[in-house]
Design a protein that fits this description.
Number of helices: 6
Order of helices and strands: HEEEEEEEEHEHHHHEEEEEE
Shape: elongated
Strand content: 15-25%
Organism: Lactobacillus kullabergensis
Number of domains: 3
InterPro entries: SlpA_C_lactobacillus
Strand order of the largest sheet: 10-13-14-15
Largest sheet: 4 strands, antiparallel
Helix content: 10-25%
Radius of gyration: 27 Å
Distance between the termini: 75 Å
Keywords: Signal
Protein name: SLAP domain protein
Length: about 325
C-alpha cells in the first residue's frame, strides 16, 4: 500500500487540476485506503471506528465528498468503547498511524461531525511497529485546506446541518486564563468555578456546539480574568458562578434591593453556616440548587433589605440571606 501511495496521490492531484479548470466543484474520487483490523496480542487495545458519509458534504476548499466516503476516528489504548456514538468526537477524512512508545499517534484531519456519518462497529488493530510509519487508517483527501478544517456542510440544503463554531477567541481567552492562575491564593469559589469552566471549555470544543454557546463562555472567561486582575479572584462570590453567569437575563432596571447602611464596608469572604438559596434583587429565588453549608462566598460587605429581610450581595443581581452566613 505504501509503495503506491505517492503515485495515487499524484494521480488524484492531476485529476483535481483537470476538474478545477472547468470551474466546477471538485468531487473527490473513491481513493480510500483502510488498514486491516487484526486481533491484538501485544497488550494494547487500539480501537478504530470506520464510517461512511450519509450524504454529500462540501468542504471549505470547494471539494465535494460524496455519500459513502470513508471516514474513521481513533479512540485510543482503551477497552472496547461501550457504545457506537460519541457525538463530541469527530471523524477524520484522512488518518494515519506511526510507531510510538505509547501506541498510536494520529496524523491527518478534516474533522467530520458524527451526525453526518453511518457508524460501523469498533475494530481492534494491532499495535504498530517501526514499519507502520505513515500507514493509512483512512485517506479520503489530502487537501490541506480541508484537512485543517471542520467546516463541512451538506450539499443538499434539505439535509440537516451541524453548527460549526469558531473557537479562536475562546482559545485565546482560555490561554489568558491559564496565564492568570494563582494556585497559592485561590478561594474555594475560584476552584469550583475553574472546575466547571474547564469541563465547559472541553465541551465547547466538541462538534455541533452553537456559536452563541462558545461566545457566552468566551465572555465569561474574559470577565473572570478582568475580575482577577482587580481582586485576585476569578469569581466575585458565588460558588456556583456558572449558574450565576448564565442568568444575567433576570436583571431589571426596577431594582428593589437597596443598601440598609451608608457605611463603606469592605468586601470579604464569609462562610455559610447553613445551605443557602440565591435570590435576585426583587427577592425571587434563582433556582432550587442550594449553595452548600460550609462553602465560602465573597460579599461586598453591605447589607440589603429585600421584602423585609436582610441580604448580602454576592454577585451581579445575586443575594443570599444574612442569617445563613456564619458570624
Amino acid at each position: 500500500m505504501k509503495k503506491n501511495k505517492l503515485c495515487q496521490k499524484l494521480a488524484i492531484a492531476f485529476c483535481s487540476v483537470a476538474l478545477t479548470t472547468v470551474g466546477a466543484a471538485v468531487i473527490v474520487s473513491d481513493t480510500v485506503h483502510t488498514i486491516n483490523a487484526t486481533p491484538n496480542h501485544k497488550g494494547f487495545n487500539n480501537w478504530i471506528q470506520y464510517g461512511t458519509l450519509k450524504y454529500a458534504l462540501k468542504g471549505p476548499s470547494g471539494r465535494v465528498y460524496p455519500a459513502g466516503t470513508k471516514v474513521a476516528r481513533y479512540m485510543g489504548n482503551l477497552t472496547k468503547p461501550s457504545k457506537l456514538s460519541y457525538p463530541a468526537l469527530p471523524f477524520a477524512l484522512s488518518l494515519s498511524i506511526t510507531s510510538s512508545p505509547i501506541g498510536i499517534t494520529q496524523f491527518g484531519g478534516g474533522d467530520i461531525a458524527e451526525a453526518y456519518v453511518n457508524l460501523e462497529d469498533w475494530q481492534e488493530i494491532d499495535d504498530p511497529d517501526v514499519d507502520s510509519f505513515g500507514t493509512d487508517i483512512v485517506e479520503s483527501t489530502f487537501d490541506k485546506t480541508d484537512l485543517a478544517s471542520r467546516d463541512f456542510h451538506p450539499v443538499d440544503s434539505n439535509n440537516p446541518d451541524v453548527p460549526v463554531a469558531n473557537t479562536d477567541a475562546l482559545d485565546h481567552a482560555y490561554g489568558e486564563y491559564l496565564n492568570n492562575i494563582d494556585f497559592e491564593h485561590r478561594s474555594k469559589a475560584d476552584k469550583i468555578w475553574e472546575e466547571s469552566m474547564n469541563k465547559r471549555y472541553s465541551a465547547a470544543k466538541g462538534m455541533g456546539v452553537s456559536q452563541s454557546t462558545v461566545d457566552a463562555l468566551t465572555k465569561e472567561i474574559n470577565d473572570a480574568i478582568a475580575n482577577h486582575k482587580k481582586t485576585g479572584h476569578f469569581v466575585s462570590g458565588s460558588s456556583d458562578s456558572s449558574n450565576a453567569s448564565n442568568s444575567g437575563s433576570s436583571n431589571s432596571s426596577n431594582s428593589t434591593a437597596k443598601p440598609s447602611t451608608s457605611s463603606k464596608s469592605k468586601s470579604r469572604v464569609v462562610k455559610l453556616r447553613k445551605a443557602s438559596y440565591r435570590y435576585t434583587r426583587k427577592g425571587k429565588r434563582v433556582s432550587k440548587k442550594l449553595l452548600k453549608k460550609g462553602s465560602y462566598v465573597k460579599i461586598n460587605g453591605k447589607t440589603y433589605r429585600i421584602k423585609g429581610k436582610t441580604f448580602y450581595r454576592i454577585g451581579k443581581n445575586r443575594y443570599i440571606r444574612k442569617v445563613n452566613v456564619a458570624k
